[in-house]
Amino acid sequence: MKKHLLLIILAAWIFPAFGKDYRLQALEDAHASFRTATNAAGYAEAAERYEMLIQEEGIRNGHLFYTAGNAWFMAGNMGRTILNYRRAERYMPNDADLQHNLSAALELRPDLIPEKEPSPVAARLLGWHLNTSPRFRWGLFSILWIGFWGTWFWMKRTPRKEARITTVTCALVSAVLLISLITEGIMNLQTQPGVITAAEVVARKGDGPMYAPAFLDPLHSGTEFQRLEQRENWWHIELADGQTCWIPARAAQTLALP
């Protein structure tokens, strides 16, 4: 915990638009509220102080998201906990503490919706794409792209067969990785991941309260989704198992921040 708070403070000092006195004092006040909290209301107050720095002051820092998620976890609000952990994950995807706490929060969700299984053919052909992070693929692409140019110059200076094979291999694998990353980027532009933050919400078959409920039971705080479309104050969402429905926009938040 102390490690993350020190990193937040360090980021605050180097952030170019950081109003040192006001924002550092706000951060210290949030930390004091978290440290002295003894019940859910106290932790919720600390979490709101952290989120004020995120929402109103525009600070984007994985450790701040993580700490806000911890405060919401202690307050018992799994929706906002998972929302902040998922936002933190974008900045520090390999952080062991974050992954441990996120797993604990996911297990406490009222709605345990199984993820849609890919088709066997897709699983065989695209398993590497589905089971690797974009960060890992970008890193591998960078290494192979540099390797391609290195072996290309080698190939130009020697008639050895190994040089041609290595160059072609680097080029082909780089191209496959690039296609994978571009495809995922396009898909991410078309949908927005989000989390239900209301205690519960009745999902409906259309974009209004006059439509019939989509499910027998309401959806609860912490349920994750992909936002497919927005109409006025209603969101069309897809759940992890592939089912779709409409919910009021006020009942959830997407991971994206303005």
UniProtKB/TrEMBL annotation:
The chain crosses the membrane at residues 136-155, 167-187. The keyword Membrane applies. Keywords: Membrane, Transmembrane, Transmembrane helix. This is SH3 domain-containing protein. It comes from Pontiella agarivorans.
